[in-house]
Model the fold of this input.
Amino acid sequence: MSVSALHSRLCLILMLAFPAAAFAQTGRELEYSEATDFTIVGKLMPGRTSNPYHRVDTTLYKGFTPMENFQVRMTSGMACAFVTDSRNISILTEYGQVSHPTNTNGISARGYDLYLHRKDGSWLWAASGVCSDASLDKPLALLSSMDGTEHEFLLYFPLYSEEYSIKIGTDKGSSIRPAENPFRHRVAVWGSSYTHGSSTSRAGMTYPAQLARRTGIQMLSLGCSGNCLLQPYFADVLVDVDADAFIFDTFSNPRAPMIEERLVPFIDRMVAAHPGKPLIFQQTIYRETRNLDGKTASSEQAKMDMAERLFRELKSTAEGRRKYRDVYLIHPVIADGRRESTVDGTHPDNHGYTLWAESIEKPVQKILRKYGIR
Done:
């Protein structure tokens, strides 16, 4: 028998054996329910996309580049809340387009991250995982051998992939039902790879996800790695978003001249579309790649300086202070005493994103409280 024929026969045997192996792994027969049958959390435009797992309907909003078109179809920031007494939990996914970012692992990019919502309101990590590329259409066993009592879970969806179907598998005969949304309000977050979650090890570690769990306020992420450039066609989307407040990470991708050209027109559109709602802009973070690279340091500092200057000018007159009274600038921090909280000198690691969420928690809450968002 040739090597290729032997390989084909082995693959066929493994494929035929898989259902029995999955059954043996859990010891129970599983039933699958579509995630959209439960409580979807973090969706930017609920009920307004033909695919419920897309963040933006690209048949309605035009102007995106091919990569941006893919990014807004990714499920970054979205999750599902449910209650079950099953002893086992598995996920079965029908993927659309997937990506393999070099600085973000597969669990974060294409896999799932599960949290337990405890009775005291706190969150406990429960499980995470991803199938191999060759088995993406196979069930992913997340939890097994639980105690059989009811637990409330939050399942974060992949950050860098598109899904057509996400099914949650539970023991046959067990119960599964929608949980109450564990978060209050709707706060939209548009931003760069930082908001998207680049370099996280799992989906629940993005700074919007961590901020939501810390505050109880729902964050609706529209992170688009490398492509948050204050574009008018992204403003078209954000103008139509139903949210109580907006947070922006808009100074990380564009260079200083682009910020100067596009910032005020972008703010003017948002102020006109969402009068009386807080618009919270974040200064870009300090990138450790600046440490020994003078060209990078100069470019990064120019971006920071431009943002600071434009915000000073916005409110330099009585008319400006009135017109832009709901526009704010805050300053996230990802550095601790060791300054080793990045993966590549540009993107934070999990700890860096935790520092980010911690650094903006109080400033964001202070602003939101002025508008009755608690």
